[in-house]
Write a structure and sequence with these properties.
alpha+beta; 4-stranded antiparallel β-sheet; globular
Length: 184
């Protein structure tokens, strides 16, 4: 079976976009801070015990607008801030790539709550943080509330919340996400 040369071109283009994403979409610190503030308000309103969780968290990494698109191969990018004691401690980018059955585009808000000092320290000392996901899907706003309630029922060092998804994305794939500290 002969492979389509356009598929190889698409892979190369996706890799180039991931490498240059930090430069192409860099936001000013004030813009990130404003977006994070709005996202935290959304978290408090969208999660029944949101305010309590934020108070208990040792740190909160907020990505207020992660944008994802894919057709077979996919990419995701966004910028956010790590909040410690209610103040911005550092800025981060999230760059992701995926492959599998996927089609569409969406934006969403991601919140990583570090519930233990050791988890926050480990994250901040790392040069970058990588996570892998599979068999993901689109969560409706009401679905996100139910998912968040399930996740918070245990004592986890890091809790992840996905809220306010917009767009249409079908995916059943393998996804890798990398978080890197930004200088603003």
């Amino acid at each position: 079976m002969k492979q389509c040369p356009c598929a190889a071109g698409a892979v190369i283009l996706a890799l180039v976009l991931f490498v240059t994403a930090d430069v192409a979409y860099a936001k000013a610190a004030k813009e990130v801070d404003a977006s994070v503030s709005v996202a935290l308000d959304s978290f408090k309103q969208g999660i029944s015990n949101g305010s309590e969780l934020l108070q208990k968290a040792k740190g909160v990494l907020v990505f207020p607008d992660l944008v994802k698109a894919g057709i077979g191969l996919g990419g995701e990018y966004g910028e956010g801030a790590l909040m410690v004691n209610g103040k911005t401690a550092d800025y981060y980018s999230s760059v992701g790539g995926s492959f599998g059955l996927q089609l569409g585009g969406q934006s969403r808000r991601i919140f990583l709550l570090f519930m233990e000092d050791s988890a926050l320290k480990s994250f901040r000392e790392a040069s970058g943080w990588t996570g892998a996901l599979n068999a993901s899907g689109v969560f409706l706003k009401h679905g996100a509330e139910a998912m968040a309630t399930t996740i918070t029922s245990g004592n986890k060092p890091v809790m992840v919340f996905v809220l306010d998804q917009k767009g249409l994305m079908y995916d059943l794939n393998f996804e890798v996400v990398k978080y890197d500290r930004l200088k603003k």
